[in-house]
Design brief:
By secondary structure, this protein is mainly alpha-helical. It contains 16 helices and no strands.
């Protein structure tokens, strides 16, 4: 389970984080960068549409191994294709990895429930989350720092990223071989193509969608899932460009390695600590009482980026401190979002309804991100982060109504 959820995290962060940094270093404009990389969320938005096929065709273990092999091949293909003149090809490869990663998520979560009993699932839930966070540090921190170091030593950005992605492919290939050897077989490996089973799966799939939209307060829940993270959804695609852009362009002028340390290491650690404390706080006071302070913790720390854009400090410690404060607040506040989705998903189709909720979660990040780069190019970083602060009102607004329907 630890290595399985480490493997689940790596492709996600490569697609949604590494792509931003790499495209920025290769010279893509902020507008194009935000739009194209936001569209990479699409496989996670629509993954409930093909989840029945993962149940009907072959075993979860088979899907896990095939998708990991496909991701490995995708990383190798990226390594061989890195060039400022190959943005189209790189995006196609990123989409292939994204669909493989989203399918791997479905299979891994299904495998988790099949391989472990209810008591074991409770024991391992913290372990799987921890190793997913380790994948986050590796994907957003270690890989970016490695690329930055190679950029400085080689003096060639495309070559540095090519070597970095090749190392990533080799490491992920070793993880795939590990799972091929040691991942237990908990289902029959033969294709399950019986007509009765297929009809049952698709009937349950249709019922899950119908009953989701029949839930009391469903439209309020959808609005909450789409708007609660609006400040983050606008800002997340612009944070790496903000860190990397030169001071004269309104950025902070950090190197690739420095941005990896700031956002991918210090930021992720603060995010993890915030998430742990958020879970403890919500367990103590209940979700209804926790939602107000958590919504404030998610929204208000966005002000640190407005401060950084206005002051443009040169001291690294101040940038580290501001990013850590924002990510800690985000980790603390995001807990309410996850608990709300879990609570809303309760019922006969809990797993399917939660998967639909995560699709809306991905959609909430994709749509604002499409316009974030365009806004930043026209408003500058200071104006852009002012708009982000205004979006905090949406978080407060939806929290006011959503908390009324929380059971505790």
């Amino acid at each position: 389970m630890p290595t399985l959820y480490f493997a689940e995290g790596i492709p996600y962060f490569v697609v949604n984080v590494i792509s931003v940094t790499m495209f920025k270093r290769l010279g893509m404009s902020n507008g194009d960068l935000a739009m194209y990389t936001s569209l990479l969320y699409l496989p996670w938005v629509i993954k409930p549409l093909w989840s029945p096929f993962v149940d009907v065709i072959r075993s979860k273990r088979w899907w896990i191994l095939v998708m990991q092999a496909l991701c490995t091949a995708g990383f190798a293909a990226l390594a061989l294709s890195v060039s400022p003149d190959a943005f189209g090809l790189l995006l196609v490869i990123f989409y292939v990895i994204a669909f493989a990663s989203a399918t791997h998520d479905i299979a891994a979560d299904g495998f988790y429930m099949l391989a472990l009993g209810q008591k074991q699932q409770s024991v391992f839930v913290g372990i799987r989350s921890t190793f997913y966070r380790i994948a986050s540090v590796f994907g957003q921190g270690v890989i970016v720092v490695l690329a930055g170091v190679l950029e400085e030593r080689l003096g060639a950005i495309p070559r540095a990223w090519s070597i970095t992605l090749l190392v990533c492919a080799v490491l992920f290939g070793l993880v795939t071989l590990w799972h091929w050897r040691f991942l237990p077989k908990v289902e029959a490996e033969e294709p399950r193509s019986g007509a009765g089973e297929t009809q049952r799966i698709f009937r349950g799939f249709a019922q899950a969608w119908v009953t989701f939209f029949q839930k009391p307060g469903v439209w309020l829940a959808i609005v909450f899932m789409l708007l609660y993270r609006l400040p983050e959804a606008f800002s997340v695609k612009m944070l790496t460009p903000f860190l990397l852009d030169p001071v004269e362009a309104g950025g902070l002028g950090l190197s690739t390695a420095q941005s990896g340390l700031v956002y991918g290491t210090v930021g992720v650690i603060a995010l993890t600590v915030g998430g742990i404390l958020g879970g403890l706080y919500a367990a103590r006071v209940g979700l209804r009482r926790a939602m107000w302070p958590m919504s404030m913790a998610l929204a208000l720390p966005c002000a640190v980026y407005l401060l950084l854009a206005a002051v443009q400090p040169s001291a690294l410690w101040s940038i580290y401190l501001c990013v850590a404060a924002d990510q800690f607040g985000y980790g603390f506040g995001f807990t309410a979002y996850m608990l709300y989705m879990m609570q809303f998903s309760e019922g006969e189709f809990k797993t399917s309804h939660y998967a639909i909720c995560t699709a809306f979660m991905a959609l909430s990040m994709m749509i604002p991100g499409l316009f974030a780069g365009w806004m930043q190019e026209r408003l500058g970083y200071v104006g852009f982060f002012i708009v982000v602060m205004v979006c905090c009102l949406a978080t407060v607004f939806v929290t006011f109504f959503a908390r009324r329907r929380c059971s505790s």
